[in-house]
Amino acid sequence: MRLAAYLAVFGMCCGAFGDAAGAGTLLEWAELPELPPPPGADRQLGLAGPFVGVDGDALIVAGGANFPEPVWETAKAWHDDVYVLLKNTKTDPPSYRWVPGAKLDRPVAYGASVSTRRGVLCIGGNDADCVFADVFLLRWNAETETVDRHPMPSLPAPCTYAGAAAVGDKVYVAGGATGLDLETAEPHFWTIDLADIGAEGFGWRRLPPWPGPPRAFAVVVAQHNGSDDCVYVISGRRVGETGETEFLTDVYEFTPAKCAPDRFDRETGGEDGPWRRRADAPRCVMAGAAIAVGRSHVLVLGGDDGSMFHQADILKNAHPGFPKEALAYHTVTNTWTSGGPMPANHVTTTAVRWGIDSVNDPVIIASGEIRPRVRSPKVWRVRPLQACLF
Q: What is the per-residue pLDDT for 228?
């Protein structure tokens, strides 16, 4: 389709999109069975920073951290539990059951995770004392109903609070911190090609970073821009030169097809380089969950705008949580719009697709943080209702 014709169609869709925003009908939200209690506990508090992904028919949620109740009087707890949600499509409506009991090698949270055709790739993360460079695949064994762990090449450096996305078999990791403090945030940008598993030299490769400040808790997502498959680095936060926390709204687009393997300098912006600056997000969406929808939309289904970041210790349980409005970014027209209201805003978790049709598969938001120190065990299924998103 010629670009002019494409933009004309998108304009008509955006009219419907904007009208629907007022009616609150852009997204259909439904609850799936909550995360089950961990072994020995009578209830599940929910998890921040778990690895979340889909392998085959299984939704996998692993690791994470939370605060035991009363949350404002306890230290953060780190977890190694692995939960698997299975869907039985032979019933109408489909039925679900959790398979608990698996364990990671150690408690870990705030790593990045990506669903791939080889399994759920789990990347980095930290516990109370250390930041890890470990990378591994989690695979669901349907015959034994167990989760298998397969070690992968470690990152070039320890990294936590990063984001990740996949373009085909290539996984990209952006941002994050090398230490537990936000001052250690770096403009990391690494890639690994899972098609090369077993080949000589298989491992992570450094790529030129975006032409902007380093950050942690960025939203990282892959989508087509009308010409190429791209990776988007959106928002995040960092500690600035004055020592103040900065809540970022800038957006950068990376085009793998434009990245020559011998270019590793930071002067990579402009039309000829692999990176270009795109329209800022309407607000900070740090630690948000985002996913590609249709041919050219990115849905941001959560994120902290930073407006009450410094009031958490004052408000405590009176904190209202994070903005309950989704955002939508169109990669071709480089525009943002409202994605309509949300019943909940879960940050520090990963949005994934679960199904067999990559266009119409529902989006899953599993657990996450709903306000400072408070997690939720809820699992949401989200379906876009607007035809222009497909």
A: 97
The C-alpha atoms of residue 285 and residue 269 are separated, in whole angstroms, by 23
- In whole angstroms, how far apart are CA 361 and each of 163, 226, 390? 22, 21, 11
Could you identify the residue written with the tokens 């090449």? Answer: 153
- 218 in Cβ contact with 160 (< 8 Å): no
Among 390, 167, 166, 165, which residue's Cα sits nearest to residue 295?
390
Note the pLDDT of residue 23.
41
d(CA 248, CA 268): 20
Total domain count, the chain: 1
Structural domain for 34, as ranges: 3-389
Q: Each residue of 53-97: pLDDT tens digit?
A: 999 989 999 999 999 999 999 999 999 999 999 998 888 888 999
Q: What is the mean pLDDT of residues 167-186?
A: 97
CATH number at residue 199: 2.120.10.80
By C-alpha distance, which of 80, 76, 42, 75 is closest to 64? 80
Closest CA to 207 of 258, 163, 241, 245: 258
pLDDT tens-digit map of 228-248: 999 999 999 999 999 999 999
Query: Among 271, 276, 273, which residue's Cα sits nearest to residue 263?
Result: 273
pLDDT category at 127 given cuts 50, 70, 90 is very high
The whole-angstrom separation of Cα 185 and Cα 241 is 12
DSSP secondary structure letters along 26-55: SEEEEEEPPPPPPTT-SS----BS-EEEEE
What does the block give as tokens for 150? 């397969």
Whose tokens are 């990152």? That residue is: 155
- pLDDT surpassing 80 at residue 327: yes
Structure tokens belonging to residue 106 = 């150690």
